[in-house]
Amino acid sequence: MRVAIVGATGAVGHELMQVLEQSQQRGSLKIDELQLYASPRSAGKTLPFGGQDLTVQVTPEGPIDADIVLASAGGSVSLALAHQWASEGAIVIDNSSAFRYDADVPLVVPEVNGPEALKHKGIIANPNCTTAIAVVAVAPIHRKYGVKRMIVSTYQATSGAGQKGMDELLTETHKVLHGQQASHQEFVHPIPFNVIPHIDAFQDNGYTKEEMKVAWETHKILGDDSIKVSCTAVRIPTLRTHSEAITLELEHPATPDEIRELLGSAPGVEVRDNPGGKLYPMPLTASGKYDVEVGRIRQSLVFDGGIDLFVAGDQLLKGAALNAVQIAEYLQEHGAIKQKAGV
Amino acid sequence: MRVAIVGATGAVGHELMQVLEQSQQRGSLKIDELQLYASPRSAGKTLPFGGQDLTVQVTPEGPIDADIVLASAGGSVSLALAHQWASEGAIVIDNSSAFRYDADVPLVVPEVNGPEALKHKGIIANPNCTTAIAVVAVAPIHRKYGVKRMIVSTYQATSGAGQKGMDELLTETHKVLHGQQASHQEFVHPIPFNVIPHIDAFQDNGYTKEEMKVAWETHKILGDDSIKVSCTAVRIPTLRTHSEAITLELEHPATPDEIRELLGSAPGVEVRDNPGGKLYPMPLTASGKYDVEVGRIRQSLVFDGGIDLFVAGDQLLKGAALNAVQIAEYLQEHGAIKQKAGV
């Protein structure tokens, strides 16, 4: 398979290369060629892949000659160029929010709605990180018990704002520890030892776009607009892995044991739920992990037969790079990649 | 007034002395004498108050000869000794959870249920920090619109575990920034750049005691057991101020504007809710502040006519020291402190 990464030098680009390498190593994807693209500023850099040093090129403003384009260079770049990249047959798996709500563009979490990927018209959207992590745990519950209401509060890591977000947390925390004032550039306010309930732009209804994405994208991925979803999205001073407290009202009552058993066999989920053993989802243990950790499973105190749970998922992986590569793997497994002549 | 502080050398003790000094400066409480008590380990230390250096004495195992005892030395110390401290007429305002659920002991947030304080039998309980901060915002809403369901997710600072909690965050973060592994003692897991959904002991129902306290104490303070309350309590790497995402289902529908207006005149509340101006509650701005910041007020997406909001309150102040001193002020204002002869 011939793969291209657009945005290769960013935090997600870095993870994409690692996840691709791991996919190749376990015999899932066979990467015949990897093209790396980034902004002119980063062009010329070399990045190691499969024992070779690959040179980063400037993102093309035309078709990309590859089977799969993994795009993670931001919404405006994708909006302007993704259709051109795809114009000669490449399938673009786009990590931005540019196309997620287009009726023509499948929004895919392979464990949840993989078959949707096969309906693409050149572009497949990778969901918002918070949503991708939540639905891996919520989808099996919805299928079996019917989710009526879903209330989410997030604990989002600085790498949600890319490598620069992590760098800012580290640099500014260092300053604070040495008695200096923290400044800020990537975040709206200083992030060290702070909590910022503001991610992405505010909408007219008082919710941020990040919060609305969780509602919009949960509806689209689960294929059910009737679920009432709300979210409070909060940036906290962690490096990677988004955590989420989720309260679910269910159509059919469920017990915590039933949910534990259900999620125990759910793909992409690691049930980590042993309070006595001090086991529950945390960034410390979920970071770098493919599976989303799910724990603190307990009976809701506000909805009869409802369920509360806590999830932690590495948003650079399941929330971004891993999910994108899993979409590529899904397409390959289902014979949906017509590899070009000459490869 | 003759005041004693038990636990004077802890984080809350430190705040108590500052808040008392400020109360005296603005002419509210007149402190004729301040006695400082702590464990034998800390006895003999001197702490400055009102221009004098006061010597810390060993916590007595008998009556304390004062009008008000502000106790913040942990539940087991209070449980063992508070009745003795109060046995000769001192009123004990206890910051621990030892007596909060006793029918005989009022649990008081002065802005919300001040008159309860007057019914004391020697001991008045100061609520759990998370609850105190939440009810300041929720009580006025409950009075006017009737809260049916209340779903809380917390972002709790390390100072909830006292000075040692803050010290551990700072020390261990410093280690991580210098490439070393973080260890832990005050918290169940390393706290730097981590999130720990485990505060206080797990109960049989899968909730932590911290989470249940929010339900139990909200019921007692609001005098209404019919409200359905749930909480997910999460420790995050901040120094002080607990933040909380709160979703409210209401008996009578309210609009965000109505709630903003209502809370704009509520005692103990600072409405900080201007997304365009990047104004919302944050530890960065709420720390050191008496009022609880309330913002992100918006119409619920899951409950018709319901309300979502975000609060941030300095839990060493409103969640502990300030509330305790405000109870003393309330008692004084209502002539409920019979100052002893000779003072």
Average pLDDT of chain A, to the nearest integer? Answer: 96
What is the CATH architecture term of the largest domain in chain A?
2-Layer Sandwich
Instruction: Please compute the radius of gyration of chain A using only Cα atoms.
Output: 20 Å
Number-wise, the strands of chain A total 13
Alpha plus pi helix count of chain A: 9
Q: Helical content of chain A, roughly?
A: 25-40%
| Protein structure class of chain A | alpha/beta
What's the CATH topology label of the largest domain in chain A? Dihydrodipicolinate Reductase, domain 2
What does the main sheet of chain A amount to?
7 strands, mixed
Greatest chain-chain interface? A-B, 57 and 57 residues
Identify the strand order in the major beta sheet of chain A.
3-4-2-1-5-6-7
Oligomeric category: homodimer
Query: What overall geometry of chain A do the principal axes of the alpha carbons give?
Result: globular
What is the count of distinct domains of chain A? Answer: 2
